[in-house]
Amino acid sequence: MTSTAAEPAALEPRERVVTAAAELFYARGIQAVGMDEVRGAAGVSLKRLYAEFPGKEQLVLAVLDWRREQWETGLARAVEQADEPRARLLAVFDFLEDWFADDSFRGCGFINAFGELGATSPSVAAATRAHKQAFQDYVARLARDAGADETLGAQLALLAEGAQTTAAIAGCGDSAEVAHRAAEVLIDAALAQR
Prior knowledge:
transcription; Tetracycline Repressor, domain 2; TetR family transcriptional regulator; DNA-binding; mainly alpha; elongated
C-alpha cells in the first residue's frame, strides 16, 4: 500500500505532518516516535504541529484516517480492474500480494496501532474496529455481487486479515498466494450452492 501522495513540498502543512507521521509510525511504531521527530520530518514548526494536532492521539487518528483512504482507494482500484464478479473477489488477494511485496510492508497499520494503543485509547480501538468492519462489509458486497451470501464475504475478509498478519510476522509475502488459493476454494464452493 504505497503512498500516492504528492511531493512533500507541494502538500499543505497538515498533510505533510500526517504523511510524515504515517511513514514514521508504520516503520518504527507509534510509541517509538515523538512529536518532535514528526515535526522535523514534516518540516513544520512545533507551534504549527500542535495547532494542527493538540495531542498525539489526534495525530494517530488522522494517520489512521489517511491509511483508511489509501487502503480503500488501492483496493477499489484493484477490484475495478477485474472484469467479472468472481475475479473481483480474487482481486482482493491480488491487491494483498502486491502490498506484501512492497519493501516497506510492516503489516496492517490498523492492527499495529490497535496492538500499541487499543487498550488505552478507545478512539484508536474504535477507528480500528470501524475500518475492519468496513472492509468486511466491502467484501460482503462483492460476494453478493458474485451471487453468494454474506457468509462468503465474512470468510474471505477473515482470510485476508490472516494473510496480512501472517505476512507481517513471517516477513514474507507468500501468504497472499496461499490465501488466494484458499479463496478460490471458498468462492467456488459458495457459488456451486446457488
